[in-house]
Specification:
It is built from eight helices and eleven strands. By secondary structure, the protein is an alpha/beta fold.
């Protein structure tokens, strides 16, 4: 087995010629462009994309320049052309088969979510370690045993996995996924995964994000508290 290595959340994209920050924002632009196209817009400006995504106009222009798109002065960007460029850059010109490990409340909700398919990802299997859950229907899929994980990954050409297990099980699951050939993992478990070189991990920790918001809320309250103390 390859040695484990600690990886920062998010894969380095320097080998693909795009900075990590740019890669993270491209899906936002693609969503905004898709909405503009549905409204009948054929062109758009960097200011429009900035307003739709919450990204500064300067960053929009810089990000798109990495794709070779600079727009036309006085006209802006061709919506269809830019959509195609971004889709190609982030691998949305093909569907990616995904296995979801963990059929708890979060995993079940994700498995039933219909929005993945329209954005290039398709959950083809939901697996769980609880024998009592096997065969239970989740959306259009039946929960399968984690004992079948390697077979599922091989036979269904899976290269991306979602880990939605309890924290104590996540590393063992990641090891199984990597051993079966998965090279990209979206980790929803509240632990940092250690994976070999060449395996990309994205960490999504909702509780941590809420704690960050709580920090900002607390800071917003300080002026009022200080004013009350000074009275």
């Amino acid at each position: 087995m390859l040695p484990r290595r600690s990886r920062l959340t998010g894969a380095s994209s320097s080998d693909r010629g795009l900075p990590n920050a740019t890669v993270a924002r491209l899906p936002l632009y693609l969503r905004a462009l898709t909405q503009l196209r549905s409204q009948g817009s054929q062109t758009c400006s960097s200011d429009q994309l900035a307003e739709s995504t919450g990204v500064s106009s300067a960053n929009v222009r810089k990000d798109l320049s990495h794709l070779g798109s600079h727009g036309t002065r006085g006209v802006g960007y061709d919506v269809d052309h830019l959509r195609a460029e971004i889709a190609q850059a982030i691998g949305q010109t093909q569907d990616w088969n995904v296995v979801l490990v963990g059929a708890g409340n979060l995993g079940t909700a994700l498995a039933a979510y219909p929005g993945f398919t329209s954005r290039g990802s398709r959950i083809v299997a939901v697996v769980d370690a609880d024998p009592a859950r096997v065969g239970e229907q989740v959306g259009d899929l039946s929960i399968e045993s984690i004992d079948q994980l390697e077979t599922i990954i091989t036979e269904r050409s899976v290269s991306i996995a979602i880990v939605a297990t309890p924290g104590q099980a996540a590393q063992d699951v990641a090891d199984q996924l990597v051993g079966a050939g998965v090279t990209s993992i979206l980790n929803l478990a509240p632990v940092a995964l250690r994976v070999p070189e060449g395996v990309d991990v994205r960490q999504v920790d909702v509780a941590a994000e809420l704690q960050i918001l709580a920090y900002h809320e607390q800071r917003k309250g300080h002026p009022r508290e200080e004013a009350e103390v000074s009275r």
